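Input.
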Amino acid sequence: MRRLWTRVPRAWLLVAAVALAGCTTDGGWDLGAGGAKGRGPDDAIRVVPADRATGVAPDDRLEVRVPSGRLERVRVVKVADARVEPVAGSVSEDGLRWRPARGTRLATSATYRVEAVALDGHGRRSARHTSFATAVPEHRFIGYGKPEHRSTVGTGMIVSFSFSHPVRDRAAVERAIRVTADPAVETAGHWFGDDRLDIRPREFWRPGTKVSVDVRLRDVEGAPGVYGIQDKRIAFTVGRHQVSRVDARAHTMEVRRDGELLATVPITAGAAKSTTYNGKMVVTEMYEVTRMNGATVGFTDADGKGEYDIKDVPHAMRLTDSGTFLHGNYWARPDVFGSSNVSHGCVGLRDVKGGSADAPGGWFFDRTLVGDVVEVVNSADRTVDPGNGLNGWNLDWGRWRAGSALR
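Output.
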């Protein structure tokens, strides 16, 4: 069978080739397969940073533009930690350029996607999709926060963050940690050195208050080249109001809850050579049993060993970072409690070896929350340093606010 075909003149082939190339003759640009004056589609909608760029710095330029026509729509999103977050921005009045909102800073360790739609001079629409990745900081920092998430605390609780790297831009870091309460109350921060920020209200929290701490440290430059990596929320509830007043001279502790006296408990405080700090101290840690070695807090014998090493101290509640505890004591004579001060600076309550809920030490432990306040009076020692534990209640509101970087 003979195949039939028709010869196509060479001139027609040339015309078809020109048509398929999508060339224009009016100086505009084509976002199809060809492009304006020989440009490809990637040149028509130009995106900075370049497609698939990596290691982009947080302050690098971010821009979408066209040489003519106008941008119809631009959407830029950050993808990090499995979340998508739009980047605010706007198209210029002439329609040729999109830029992020003033003050926008790219996040580190994130991927950005750019979606742009443009119209040429003939109203023809085309789109471009690109992506780029920002740099992963070599130096990072985090904050270790108190109290614990979903905990119930006493009314004296102070929100505290210790940072893994010295902070140089305190204001930036303090702005990134927001404390809100229901019912609402004013709070303020106070810096203790370059690595710790405490936050509290003017007065003790009201019982029943719900507190949220929003930590938005991710991409905050705490020091030159050192960026935060946290983005989380901590929530806690304020329980009942309990303040216990230790009188070192009278050797007693009055335990008051919501203003009512629960009990007056006999105690022993620091001896003459190792007196107990005065002032308001917040319970920060609680242990059913712990070990106490004098060598860890500077109480040593001539041979360098600790003056004491008690491996099973019951019902221990920390009051200072330097080692002041309120704890059960089974090794002192029973007649010491309520009559003399014999400790190395701690406040001791009578207890038994192994601890007992029926002894004063166990009774008080079972009725204490982290965040409760223990106030010591009439000791021969000075007032505790506000930064030695969560003891900022020893500063009045004016001095407390003076320690904020946002004043």
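The chain is about 10% helix and 40% strand.
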